[in-house]
Amino acid sequence: MLPNLICPGTQKSATTTLYVLLRQHPDVYLPDVKETHFFDDDGKYFKGILWYEKVFFSEVKGEKIIGDITPIYMYLDRMPQRIYDTLGENIKFIFMLRNPIDRAYSHYWMSYKRGYEKETFEKAIDLEKERIKTGQFAIRHFSYVDRGFYSKQIKRFLKYFPRENIQFIIFEDFIKNISGIMKQIFSFLEVYSNISINYNIKSNPAKMPKSIILRDFIKEPPTLVKKTFRFLMPNRKMRQKAIQAIENISYRTFEEPELKLETKYKLLAIYEKDLKELENIIEKDLSLWFK
């Protein structure tokens, strides 16, 4: 069986929370790996549809909804056609949309905490256009502002898929009323909504490395350390658990600094036209994002 539901984004908009909640529904199947990256990773995509099904969906047992939640699908321009060519037009989509300014800032801190970003947020957005010309790494990790032009991204999907098969969820509404919005999602998916769901979850809590040096060492250890680690622990899953344990004790809870007001106004001016167009496309009031 192949997916009949795609959540293509956007990143930093509670897609992990959505994944955790949807997995609790008996009529919904999501793979153990939240993000398959099948359609955006050429190495996976060209292995073909049978590989996709075998690796991620071989354990489907009659669930009505089979999903793939990979937030970068929304951003990359070739994704709608690849999804259409592989799965056809009669699949459903859930788009999780967040104030693009807040999304960009959250994305920046994620890249910083992972050791990818060295610049301030203000410097990073000034450098962004040139950076993302350099290749896939920059496109994925430094596209803070560019990912926020939602209307042009959604229009690419509407060229291939009917509007009635697409649900748009506003992040700010979702976090205020998770249970209510999830009932709307279950209704859209045509599965039972009167089931017991544990909503007491916390996905991707904000953390910061206790030491920048240690963070960089964990992210890119010397070759000798890598080889020794692999020799001592040849099982890949065990290595991942060990790395996760090291990261857990190496990071502290972190609260992002407030975004500078002048930076917020700068980004609002950049996004204003796109947001007004987005309101018309998704038929939702986004005035909260303009404040």
TrEMBL record:
<dbReference type="Pfam" id="PF00685">
    <property type="entry name" value="Sulfotransfer_1"/>
</dbReference>
<keyword id="KW-0175">Coiled coil</keyword>
<keyword id="KW-0325">Glycoprotein</keyword>
<dbReference type="InterPro" id="IPR000863">
    <property type="entry name" value="Sulfotransferase_dom"/>
</dbReference>
<feature type="domain" description="Sulfotransferase">
    <location>
        <begin position="6"/>
        <end position="192"/>
    </location>
</feature>
<dbReference type="GO" id="GO:0008146">
    <property type="term" value="F:sulfotransferase activity"/>
</dbReference>
<dbReference type="InterPro" id="IPR037359">
    <property type="entry name" value="NST/OST"/>
</dbReference>
<protein>
    <recommendedName>
        <fullName>Sulfotransferase domain-containing protein</fullName>
    </recommendedName>
</protein>
<keyword id="KW-0808">Transferase</keyword>
<feature type="coiled-coil region">
    <location>
        <begin position="261"/>
        <end position="288"/>
    </location>
</feature>
<dbReference type="InterPro" id="IPR027417">
    <property type="entry name" value="P-loop_NTPase"/>
</dbReference>
